Amino acid sequence: MFDLIRLEWKKNKAKGYIVKASITILLLTALVLPIAYEDVEETDKSISGRDTITMTVDTFSEMGFIVFSGVMLSSFIVSNYKNRTMELMFTYPIKRKKILASKILSVGIFNFTGLVIAKLFMYGLLLFFSKYKEFSYPARYDMASFLFYVDVIVRSFSTVCISFIALFVGMKLMSSKATIITSFLLFTLLQGQIGDFTLSDNIVLPLILAFVGLVIAVLSIRKVESKDLI
User: How many Å apart are CA 178 and CA 183, to the nearest integer?
Assistant: First the structure.
């Protein structure tokens, strides 16, 4: 399976995506730093729920990689169905399930790894700068804590699973644009706010969407053997 995943990365020029992901991480970090040092009133420095620093890092990094996942899913999978190159792939002496699973896993592993690296890089850089100048907001994360890394891994895995919902929409409409647009909409939904209630602070909705995304990925693989190509 890993050979198939590596083949997908090679065929879709993963090196180019690595460069783009690296640039994305740098740009996102450049957006986070000014927020960490923005001028705020003393009364605004303490907020309920997750602190501003953590929430900002998670918001920007997850936004970037949900959209990045959508772009890769449209390129690795949806466009293959749309231009019918998937038909040729399914003539190979390899089970359809393995072919499609390798595509989904290649996107999932790439973006999970990228998102974890992005979070650790942003948190680490902020920690470095905080030693020289105190943040405008209290930083409550602890990079020496095991639970910190558990949170990073769980949230990253959840975010990547959520991105698979865009695959369902893209496959139904046979549209790469629909896949990418759905990625934007998913992020908008997760960051929505109703009065004082912020969805980004609510763990239930992301977990539900992550479960839905994971189910979509699994069902897409299970049904591919018997489903005719459109």
Answer: 9
Tokens of 161: 């699973």
The beta-carbon contacts of 219-228 under 8 Å, at least 24 apart in sequence, are: 220/100, 220/104, 220/167, 220/168, 220/171, 221/97, 221/100, 221/101, 221/104, 222/97, 224/96, 224/97, 224/99, 224/100, 225/95, 225/96, 225/97
Quick check: 40 pLDDT over 80? no
**Which amino acid belongs to residue 100?**
L
Return the structure tokens found at 118. 């992005």
Summarize pLDDT for 121-147 with one digit per residue, the tens.
Answer: 999 998 888 787 777 667 778 888 899
Q: How many CB atoms lie within 10 A of CB 171?
A: 19
Average pLDDT for 7-14: 86
Instruction: Tell me the average pLDDT across 176-184.
Output: 86
Q: Are 49 and 198 in contact (CB under 8 A)?
A: yes
Helix or strand (DSSP H, E) at 140:
none
Beta carbons within 10 angstroms of residue 180's beta carbon: 22
Residue 98 near residue 1 (C-beta atoms within 8 A): yes
183: exposed, middle or buried (C-beta count within 10 Å: 0-12, 13-18, 19+)?
buried
Q: Name residue 178's amino acid.
A: A
Is 203 a residue whose pLDDT tops 80? no
